[in-house]
Amino acid sequence: MFIRKSTKDYLKADVKDISKLLTLALDQTKEQLFSNPGYELNDIEHKTLNNLIKQRTNGKPFAYLKGSQGFYDLDFVVSPATLIPRPETELLIDIALDTFDTNKKISALDLGTGSGIIAITLSEKFPSWAITATDQSNDALKIAQINATNKIDFYCGDWFDALPKDKFDLIVSNPPYIEDQDPHLHSLKYEPIEALISGKDGLDDIRKIISQSPEFLNQGGYLLLEHGYNQKKQILGLLEESFVNIKAFKDLNKVDRAILAQLR
Ligand SMILES: C[S@@+](CC[C@H](N)C(=O)[O-])C[C@H]1O[C@@H](n2cnc3c(N)ncnc32)[C@H](O)[C@@H]1O
Predict the structure, then answer these.
(1) Range of 27's domain?
(2) What's the pLDDT tens digit per position in 199-237?
(3) Is 83 in the pocket of ligand 1 (CB under 6 A)?
C-alpha cells in the first residue's frame, strides 16, 4: 500500500530529472504534467516512478531509462549496448553540410556507428548518398538498424575488417577516444566501455583509422573524425603523411573537437 502523492509533491522532491521521470511514469508530456499539478498518482504509477527514481539516483542516465535520445533533428532508440548520443557529435553533421553538395551522389562510411546517429542523420540530409556503417558490437548494430530511416548497409567487425573491399568518398567516425585511466570514467559506468576508451593516450583507435583510411578512400576522398579536447596536435601529426587540406574545428563550447582532411 502506497501513500498517495500528487505530481506537485513529487516536483518539490530533490531528485535529479524528477519532472522528466514523472513524464515517463505517467506517460505524459511536460505540458500535460504541469497543467495538472494536483493529479494524484495511482499505485501502479507510484511504483513505476519510485523504481525510476531509484535507478536515476543510482546514476543510470535518463536516456537509458527513456530508451531514446535526441540528436540533430531526430530521436534515436538507445540501449546499454550503445553510447548515448552527445550534442558535440552534431558538429560532424554541420561540417558535412558545409563541405558537401547535397545533390552530389557520393559514398560514405560511418565507422563505429553505435545507435547509428551519424550514418542515419547523413542519410536524411544527403538522400542521394550511398551509406555504409559498421560497428564491432552486434547489439549496437541491431539498435542502429531499428533507428535507420533510409537504406544503409550495416556490417559488424573490427574497423575496416568489417567491410567487403570497397572505397568511399567520405569516411566519418566518432571513435572511442578516452584514455583508459581517465578519472572521469566512473561517471560513465553505465555506457559500454568499449565505446569510450582507446588505450593509454586515448588514440589507439584514431591511429588505426588514420593509418588504414587511405586504402579505403577514393582519390581526393575525405576523412572526418571527432576527437578528445587535447588530441588535436597529435592527430594533425598523424594525418600529415597521407592527407592535405586539413581543417580543425571547435565545438559549441569552443573546445577542439573535430578534424576534416582530404586524401593527398
Ligand atoms: C564513441 S562511440 C560512437 C557511437 C556513435 N557513432 C555516436 O557518435 O554516438 C564508438 C563506437 O565505436 C564502436 N567501436 C569500438 N571499437 C571498435 C572497433 N574496433 N571496430 C568497430 N567499432 C568499434 C563502439 O562499439 C561504439 O559504438
Answers:
(1) 7-58
(2) 999 999 999 999 999 999 999 999 999 999 999 999 999
(3) yes
